[in-house]
Specification:
Helix content is 33%, strand content 18%. It is an alpha/beta fold. The N and C termini lie far apart (52 Å).
């Protein structure tokens, strides 16, 4: 039984829609544009790849979907051919790979596959693909993200792109972000810092990230969204940290509680957030 369908956006771009939830996998700006604006450019991936002496760059692609973000990252690395660029390892996490299978069947409608269909097919077949020159290693971890994450190499970058908190609330809670924060505790990760990018600007998601130990900031406008979210293990890695204006909005929020919150009411949430080092 199919779990996704191919749809056309009003601007002519192609996306996938999950049949059970009705949720579209990409925003109205289109898959390639969203991946470029929100993840590749905002993370400064090209500049990171050209950093001297930093070693392998480990990217967690949390929510593989149709592989839009992973393929955009690979394309960015391939564009640095001939330069002294860092090796790129992409760890993709997904519990339903049928979306990628369907997109690959319709690859002509998805420009982000251009030149990389064999990589996507290889990943689906062997759960791992390496570029001919060895500069890219792409690995698939299929199934429960929470089970796989503790055993994986620590990330320098996290592209957090699961379906929305409304559809999969269990993947946007304090426990999930605590798991991610623990994954950033190795010596290499601490030296380089870890930064997370996501399309959600939800107050409860930002509260969950803060309570999990991250510093949290405003992300860029993508055209479809006026605001997104960036989180980091180091405050200095945030361009625009959440500020007093956001704390005022938190006070007024009707839904400040993360999905697994089991503490007190609004006052306790506000108190815990204000005690965070970011606001000290």
């Amino acid at each position: 039984m199919p779990t996704h369908e191919v749809i056309k956006n009003k601007n002519g771009t192609t996306s996938l829609r999950e049949l059970k939830s009705g949720e579209v996998m990409h925003s109205s700006v289109g898959p390639r544009e969203e991946a470029t604006l929100l993840y590749i450019e905002q993370s400064r991936l090209k500049a990171r790849l050209l950093e001297k002496g930093a070693g392998e760059l480990v990217l967690w692609d949390v929510g593989l979907g149709a592989a839009t973000n992973a393929l955009a990252a690979m394309q960015c690395r391939l564009e640095q051919a001939g330069l002294e660029a860092r090796p790129l390892r992409i760890l993709s996490f997904e519990n339903d790979i049928s979306g990628l299978r369907l997109a690959l069947e319709h690859s002509r409608d998805f420009p982000f596959f251009e030149g990389l269909t064999s990589a996507a097919a290889g990943l689906l077949g062997a759960k791992s693909w390496q570029s001919p020159g060895g500069e890219i290693l792409w690995q698939l971890f299929e199934g429960d993200f929470h089970a796989h994450a503790p055993n994986c190499a620590a990330p320098e970058l996290i592209f957090f792109d699961f379906y929305s908190p409304k559809t999969v609330p269990e993947l946007w809670n304090i426990a999930t972000f605590e798991l991610l924060h623990r994954a950033c505790s190795s010596r290499q990760a601490k030296r380089l810092g870890t930064t997370l990018y996501t399309y959600s600007a939800s107050t409860r998601v930002r509260v969950a990230l803060l309570l999990a130990g991250f510093y949290v900031g405003y992300g860029r406008n993508t055209g479809a969204k006026n605001d997104t979210t960036v989180a980091a293990t180091r405050l200095e890695d945030l361009e625009k940290p959440l500020d007093a204006r956001w704390l005022e909005r938190l006070e007024r929020s009707h839904e400040p509680f993360p999905h697994d919150w089991n503490g007190g009411g609004r006052t306790e949430v506000n108190t815990l957030v204000r005690r965070h080092k970011q606001f000290g």
